[in-house]
Amino acid sequence: MLRKITFFTLMLFIVVIAVVLVRTFTLQEIRWSRREPRFAISQEHLHLFEKNLMDSLRIATISPQREEERNHKVFLSFHDFLRQKFPLVHRHLIVRKINKLSLLYLWPGRDREKKPAVFLGHYDVVPAGDGWQYPPFAPQKVGEFIYGRGAIDDKVTVIGLLQAAELLLRQGFMPERRVYFAFGHDEENGGWQGGKLMADLLKKEIGEAEFVLDEGGAITLGLVPGVALPVATIGVAEKGYLSLKLLARGEGGHSSAPPFDSATEKLIKALMRLQDNPFPTRLTSIQKEMFAYLAPYMPFWQKIALANLWLFEPFLLTQFKGSKTGRASTTTTMTATILSAGQKENVVPHEAMAVVNLRLLPPTSREEAKSYVEEITQGLVLVENLSFYSDPSPISPMGPQARGFGEIATTLKSLREDIIVTPYLVLGATDSRHYTSLTPHVYRFSPIYFTADDFQRMHGKDERISLSSLEFALRFYCLLLEQM
Predict the structure, then answer these.
(1) What are the catalytic residues?
(2) What does the alpha-carbon distance between residue 185 and residue 108 come to, in Å, rounded to a whole number?
(3) Which one of 137, 209, 358, 465 is least enclosed by Cβ atoms within 10 Å?
(4) Which one of 3.40.1030.10, 3.40.630.10, 3.40.50.150, 2.40.50.90 gives the CATH number of domain 43-238+394-482?
């Protein structure tokens, strides 16, 4: 009997090894088509793009925390700047102001029967804060970089699209399908007064779009362990956003004789419970597709793991938990961002409050997330919604045949053959979530090179963009628009 058990165990082991090896050695790269640019881009065009971007960064289009504090004059001066810098665009495209400050451009196409393509961007920026090496709104070119608030997020998109359109118009180009540029003024505050209104208007006017492209992914350098080549991450979905207010109440009084169960103690216990009971981790369909795209380029042992998720998924999830972005990609995260309690050092407060920000992993809804937090903190705090929230976006189609995804990937591979293209889950929130009713094909990608250092700078100090990113972005937008 023991001999039979040993025999069957050995055979099972051999079968498992055989399956693992077959799946590993039969991995194939995704094949993408190529397209040659119709129009040449000169150094003069690149220098003009560089200058226009730097000039745009001088205009401090800051989105304040309170909408009534927005400086409309500054935002309107940005409109004047665009009219001055891109005369052909403003002569040939139809421009509408939405809610006074957002800009909606229509480039009429030759064939109105074709569904239009919609390109998104935003020209508002977050406050700069102190401690910059170079002034945030007096951009400087230092070596191979341009420093300034908004260089990456997101004026490179706005200026890049308009520069590409200006260049193509100068050479007599007209797209086959209609093309919209929708540039929001309040994306950093959720896009409710800009992007949302433009999306609603387009829904009424065009019904359905061919695809939507917004910021989100990028051409990452050195961010994928085991892969030396540049990896272009095309966002096919984004996590949801939810902030919850946790309010604890308890007995107050003098701190010389504190109560046994104060509001601050209840709040601390509630936060500790959340820390000790995180949402479960799992691989979404996006991560699984991403692994399939990346696996052929991985070292052998990593390739084995990615080609055989049926066996190695628990191991991979453990590895993901070890990094900030890895954990954020595989679970709904929770973190306390605002804490408030007493007013005086010797008075025990009656109330203590915390705001916990959650980023929801698809398909977790905000109702499910709130119920989970209420269950974990039951008996300690009241849980209330704050005003701004969004569910995770739908997951857009992926692959060479997917409208939008295929064109983006084809453009990337045509400009640089060694780029690896992969789908990606965007961890932050973008205006694209307002446009999901227009089409299932909503993508998030900026054609710029992106490192771990850039991630820290984007909403932090010394935001910058490389000159090589500017060149690639202009070539990308020109070639992508040629396909419209």
Answers:
(1) 124, 187
(2) 23
(3) 137
(4) 3.40.630.10
E strand residue ranges, 101-254: 102-107, 117-122, 140-142, 145-147, 179-184, 211-220, 231-238, 240-249, 253-254
**CATH number of this structure's domain 240-390:** 3.30.70.360
Extents of the domains making up the chain: 43-238+394-482, 240-390
